[in-house]
Amino acid sequence: MVRTAAVGAPAERREGREKVTGTARYAAEHVHPGRAHAWPVPASVARGTVTAVDTAAALEQPGVLAVLTHENAPRLTQPDDPVLAVLQNPRVPHHGWFVALVVAETLEAARAGAAAVRVSYDTEDHDVTLTETHPAAYVPEKANGGYPASREHGDPEGAFGSSAVRVDVRYRVPPLHNHPMEPHTSTALWDGDRLTVHTSSQGSNVVRSTLAALFGLPEERVTVVAEHVGGGFGSKGTPRPDVVLAAMAARRTGRPVTVALPRRYLPAVVGHRAPTLHRLRLGARADGRLTSLIHEVTTHTSRVKEFVEQAAVPARIMYAAPDSRTLHRVAPLDVPTPSWMRAPGEAPGMYALESAMDELACELGMDPVELRIANEPESEPDSGKPFSSRHLVECLREGARRFDWARRDPRPRSRRAGPLLLGTGVAAAVYPVLMQPSTATARALPDGTFLVRINATDIGTGSRTMLAQVAADALGVELERVRTEVGSSELPPASLAGGSSGTASWGWAVHDACARLAADLRQQAGPLPAEGLEARADTAGRADAESRWARHAFGAHFAEVAVDTVTGEVRVSRLLGVYAAGHILNARTARSQFVGGMTMGLGMALTEGSTVDAAFGDFTESDLASYHVPAHADVPDIEAHWIDEDDPHLNPMGSKGIGEIGIVGTAAAIGNAVHHATGVRLRELPLTPDRVLRAAASGRP
Questions:
Q1: What is the structure's pLDDT at 632?
Q2: How far is it, in rounded angstroms, from Cα 50 to Cα 71?
Q3: Torsions phi, psi of 361, nearest 5?
Q4: What's the rounded mean pLDDT across residues 75-82?
């Protein structure tokens, strides 16, 4: 009997039954004897200093055990991430910064105690409003991810000025928020000088090293477990205040303590996608070939630390423009610190670039699919490196075929069904291939099964299952014979789940450990010892080695919309995505990731958006009653397909990350479809009914 390959098969999630039956335990569900609960108190001013904290009424509440403030909280060493310096001094850098923590016997008692805390402030003038001409804006040395803030090739201004066809447009993407189903939660327990933490995190090794440094402990005395994580979308990529507060409260009270951040507190303390103001200038010849590409971005950061959304970086990769400039400017404001959110940089940057490309296609009278194909580069425009693989043209062609693009009437407002204006749009997508060093062990057991151990994190992507598939093929055994252990700092260390790098990084280590084990087994004479036979692999120096190839995943998004001329409502009737992302490791979980990303892109286009209240300095859309996220029912027809790439320059599996590329081009495809339907170009997200009606009535955005 020939064994069927495990990699690529639509294997079911191994933890699926646990999740749907409620037996999978998340960070708040580890109930240790004597566990207490804690509730934070956020600052109600936008900038200033705490002058007094009256805790008397809180301490009189039934069940309240303690109130931690900057005056009595355990002292921490100076953190590398200033966001984690909670309750260490009286400064308030932004609205929502935690100024106290109430610990009580029950969650309800902690909440009641927090409501009874009275805080006095010495307030200062604040500034939370981002403008393109903000006087404090500057060009930083680096943007997020270590990218240079500015890159220039040739004479982009001169080339733009002499171009036969020019587009000079501005776009605005508002602040966006990570709202994972499981809020940021941690349960901490001290046993003498040993600390154990259950936390909702995308990387428990990072949490371990951070807590050890903050509390002055050797790392071997800290155990961090993140066995099940209910989503993160980037916001759990680094330790957040919940895990520090839980450890502080547990040390102060001598009790296990759970801190589950209320959802309405999340926008202020776990990061957000910073607003981005874009100016795009595209110059082209009459045949559509770009002569100049200029993408300039202005964004905000906090005064706590610098974080610069790298939204102009995708323009360095996408199209063959001989003269180009990409630039980031950032203004430090009295706002919460921005951070990673699914496809940071690429999601807002490609919305602007792909919308501008659609505007250029209209100016040229050229099909937008053909315009993109006409500007396909032979090598990566910024670095000059050859692409390890680039099948964007194939994605565009295959998507156009599946979407029946050839039958599209390019004229705006050419299709109507009663009060509904119908339109279609297209956009491209790109996401970098990122890999980090990881370690893994593989053990053959006397009963004929295999155990793979690695501190990977499963944030809902099916990591356990895919790693077992990689292991099964490397060992040459049936998938059912392989078990995986993930999600604890006691396991072999591995990189975090972020940047679509998780499976590509962990899978490499798992593949190598299993390949070595298979070789050892071939040399094994006689039965295995009782403890089995183990092999270990560490990809340091290889996974993080500089590549001479430009490595990216690509995709094409197509959207069909119906715009109600009476209500202004935009309904997406169909979304289609075609991706080139190396070898797909699991067809079932891959489709889920692509569809999830596209659904999140739908929210970015139509419903998601936040505003910073200029008077109070806080985000007005701070919960899911006001910050509207889409459901799968909001798009009745959604398809995800892929082109299988044979790319030998990646890892042993030939895989690229897929968790984020699904969101990248979706918003632009929808926006372009709205323009095709209405003939009006809206350049600020989200495309809400009031904006659509206002633009339709005036004939301009």
A1: 81
A2: 11
A3: -60, -40
A4: 97
Upper half-sphere CA count for residue 111 (Cβ side, 13 Å): 6
Counting runs of H as helices and runs of E as strands, what totals does the chain give? 16, 24
Q: What is the C-alpha separation between 360 and 166, in angstroms, rounded?
A: 7
Residue 15 annotated in active site: no
Q: Which of 83-97, 161-175, 250-264, 625-639 is predicted least confidently?
A: 625-639
Mean pLDDT of 359-387: 98
Residues 6+ apart with CB under 8 A from 81: 210, 238, 239, 305
- Confidence category of residue 525, pLDDT binned at 50, 70, 90: confident
Q: Considering 296, 560, 621, 660, which one is annotated as catalytic? A: 660
- What is the rounded CA–CA span in Å between residue 214 and residue 73? 13
Alpha helices (H) along 434-584: 463-475, 502-523
What is the arithmetic mean of pLDDT over 504-529? 96
Q: Contact 256/34 with Cβ under 8 angstroms? A: yes
List the beta bridge partners of residue 416: 421
Residues 6+ apart with CB under 8 A from 477: 3, 450
Could you give the 3-state DSSP secondary structure of residue 432?
A: strand
Question: Which tokens hold the place of 345?
Answer: 């940089």
User: Tokens in use for 301?
Assistant: 């950061």
Residue whose structure tokens are 């109130």? 67
pLDDT value at residue 696: 78
Two tokens, residue 374: 């006409």
